[in-house]
Amino acid sequence: MANSLSCLMPTLFAALDIVSREIVGFIPAVSVNAAPNGVAKGDPIKIPVAQTAESYDVVPGAAPGDNGDQEAACVTMTIRKSKYAPVRWTGEEQLSVSNAGVLNTVLRDQFAQAMRVLVNEAEQDIASCYREASRAYGTAGTTPFAAGVTDVARVRKILVDNGAPLNDLQLVVDTAAGANLRANTQLTRANEAGTDATLRRGELLQISGMSIRESAGIRPHAAGSFTGDAVVNNSGGYKPGANIVAYDGASAADFRAGDIVTFADADDKYVISRAGTVSPLTLNLPGLRNAVADDAAVTLGGAYTPNLAFDRNAIQAIFRTPAVPQGGDMADDRTVVTDPVSGLSFDVSVYRQYKQVKYEVGLAWGWKCIRPEHVAILLG
Fold it and tell me: What's the whole-number mean pLDDT along residues 147-171?
């Protein structure tokens, strides 16, 4: 049975063509790494992260200053999921469909759906990194780009202020925001846009140095809540950079990771990093942009759609095929097919059983936001 998948290769590649037309925005936008073969699901993978440098006064002398040591820092990520989607047929079922002459068509669609469910789950997992974003811009519950493209510049400003590299900025939006962009006359008027790509082909152009992509994996954020008037509780207030903020005056608190919070009348919208029901609040890095006084009002934002702006390297993803023991398993044959759009490679295996055959499409992956300060939310 060594060549049992050979006759299915045209069907597999036909299914791949269907998958490659799905709206996948995050997977091609983040930094994708091939997982080391020796790393199993759940094993730690360390990613070095450079620390903030310090400056010193130049003091002439016989030797240079005895300084420059830095504590090595790294972020640990893992392969969190190893999953498969099955396709199974009995001999009688195949015979019935073969008589109608549509077996390969049905198989193609089944493989397409198997690949699709894995791609979509990985896409949604990466999209969940919005909970680790530094700050947010926009109005919760209002789709951006209704009156122009300035929202791109505003969310880009957050990344610039936080020191994000500017050479590979990404903005991934949902289809509602994408529709507003395609309806924008600045992009659809060829004489103003300099191209008819948006008008004729619906392509989203790069704006303000940011590559714009759409994703079907963006899911609405359900905001937390509290009762009463919450205020900052710290006699000296908090300085810029603080990310732990105590509060009082609120009861029945139910803050959720990804909630948006503001202080007093300031415009800065901060993202809460972890769920909690008691003081203090923990904000994502780099923390407060401006000082916050004691007794400043704490306001919790409402539900929103998390469109995400980020530097490519701020979000890391790893993909590989599910591990197989040395010597193989019970599969009669297996092959790997790669989606040319998302870049994901699927393991396709066949298991011949009693009076039936089972195919499995598998994928293993992990994801991690390693630089929260280089990620920002465009509220929708």
Answer: 95
